[in-house]
Design a protein that fits this description.
Belongs to the catalase family. HPII subfamily. It comes from Haliscomenobacter hydrossis (strain ATCC 27775 / DSM 1100 / LMG 10767 / O). This protein is of the alpha/beta class and about 725 residues long. Helix content is about 25%, strand content about 15%. It is built from 19 helices and 18 strands. Strands 1, 2, 3, 4, 5, 6, 7, 8, 9 and 10 form a 10-stranded antiparallel β-sheet that branches. Strands 15-12-11-16-17-18 form a 6-stranded parallel β-sheet, with helices on both faces. A hairpin with a 7-residue loop joins strand 13 and strand 14. It binds CIS-heme D hydroxychlorin gamma-spirolactone.
Length: about 725
Amino acid sequence: MKDSNPSIKDSNTAKIDDLAQNTENGQGEFLTTNHGLRINDDQNSLKAGERGATLLEDFQLREKITHFDHERIPERIVHARGSGAHGYFELHESMTPYTKAKFLQTPGTQTPVFVRFSTVAGSRGSTDLARDVRGFSVKFYTEEGNYDLVGNNVPVFFIQDAMKFPDLIHAVKPEPHHEMPQAGSAHDTFWDFVSLMPESMHMIMWAMSDRALPRSLRMMEGFGVHTFRLVNENNESVFVKFHWKPVLGVHAVSWDEAQKISGKDSDFHRRDLWEAIDSGNFPEWNFGVQIVPESDEHKFEFDLLDPTKLIPEELVPVQIIGKMVLNRNPDNFFAETEQVAFHPGHIVSGIDFSNDPLLQGRLFSYTDTQLSRLGSPNFHEIPINRPIAPVHNNQRDGHMRQTINTGQSSYHPNKVGNGCPFQAKASEGGFVAYNKRIDARKIRARSPSFFDHFSQATLFFNSQSEVEKNHIVAALQFELGKLETEAIRLRIVYMLTQVDESLAARVAKGLGIAVPPAPELPLNQSIPADGDPEKFQPTPMVSSIKMSKALSMAGTVKDNIKTRQIAILATDGVDKVSLLTMKQVLEDAGAQTKIIAPHLGFITPNNGNPIKVDQSFLTAASVLFDAVYVPDGQQSSAALAQEQDAIHFINEAYKHCKAIAADGAGVKLIDATAAGVKIHSAGKADKSSLALGVVLNGEATEFVSAIAQHRFWEREKSGKVPA
Ligand code: HDD
């Protein structure tokens, strides 16, 4: 039988092999009860006569229905909607000078990983394309135990102290009285909270940027967010920030597109990840670190412990030390993606925490949430969670305990069990917390070094391209436009003046309001009862770095079209050579093509055998593709020009700034659209239209280069086409 889930051969399959012990497959087997009894009739319950009542004795029915009744578990309180994949991490640069973590020592070492990407606010069945931050969790199954890097696709966070996390999440989740809106932040409670918490403003800039609308989970960055520590054999420590950089670059869709994708295919990201892995196009990320010597802890104009700050790459470059490859889809969504339990506190010797107060709170929250979500302190025994490193301790019993611990003793110290299991010396891999000296008073407070709330929000905004800035303005206008309470809009617009005056003015214009003067209330309302409000107000600061290239997506990787989805519109009378030649060029360059026609089945070209259609206009939509091509063929082009769905397809692709190509008579279809009118009015309906990403009667290679550009946002300037 063909292995339906192959993994590439040179990767470390230790975890896959481990999981195999728990897999089950009914192929060629009898149907049984959960207790192994073969079932003779799975169609009818046991009754008192053919038309009689069902008997309580029917253990088969009771077992089946009882199990069904209990199939659901609570969804994650945040990050409920997620998609996972297996893979491996390969180290390329030894980190020995900085850390004793074994998986970071020898270049070439491969460590199995399981990764789960997620949105934050929506429920388990919500759309993938919500405007939201994305979770980026990686579980490394190292030989020394599991290491979890539980990050996001944004390098900073909304709040500085875990004390505010439940408030933040209550504010962003659907409002409690009517449970609306689903998976979106465009509502009063979220912006009310933000308007009173200036520390959220840097993250708001990211969340309103196109980063919150990834084209693909495979095309987004990941960040550990907090400053962590690395600790070496000599017990010397450095600070570290972790980065994942996607090999395919960082790309986004437009907001209009995102909303339409949510209707056409709300599983768009999950499907994209699944199909890429299934077709052997394994997603890859480079793994990078920013290392800061302990002696430099106070050298920056921000506090390394403040999770609303990033370290600009101009100050500390990211060193790439390895690569992660995702090469295997899960066998079972629930068993793997749903039951996987991440925790920033799952670390290995050589990695340690900083005092970031957000991180410190997380260290409590994650085990706690698994207890309610997975229902037992034995969640570490669930196959996807159990380490490949051996587990021996004196923890016992509890719901659903799987391990059969043998022997008489379950305590330490003991003599009955020969003192086993032993504690490990540091030299034997025993974990020793980094022994940082602490000399402090107990105090419920926030460091004044955390009070600069705007300088990096401004840095982020200034680092964006013009198009990216436009999108941030539009996003804020959308989100604030959805609010019912005018006062919240005013407070946010004032807050935006602290980031950038022009940003505030532009957003205000769209909302039809004037930029308000400074409010009478102190800007920061997150103040202890006995606190002096003056002392809690943002410190005016200007970042010494004015622009940071890494913060913009404009300069990302744009040199290939691997895994890009290209629609080819055709019907009877299409020129087969034109269609197949372009298809071949695109596929040779790594893209995937689909032939879309008015109906499924086959279309008859004007020269040759019938061509199989992949999708009809009914199930396809331009928002599900990266580019569109119309081949030559008089009859085909004329027929498509009469198809409203074909016209809409082209217009929408144009509106969303995607590469468009047409050859021969195919150009007539473009001409029949509003997009064609735009192209002509720009006087660019020839080869010079390349600048707009439109390749009419050009070279196939020009179309390939255009697709690689991802989007021609320039087109937005000349106004939208109706689509
Ligand atoms: Fe969290 C899940 C990322 C702050 C409490 N978080 C969760 C997941 C990600 C993050 C990616 C999904 C894990 C998965 O795929 O199963 N969280 C972050 C980042 C944060 C952050 C990058 C800030 C830098 N989180 C944070 C705080 C708290 C939590 C401050 C609480 C004090 N997070 C949770 C949680 C979740 C969770 C409630 C829900 C499901 C889970 O843990 O397993 O415990």
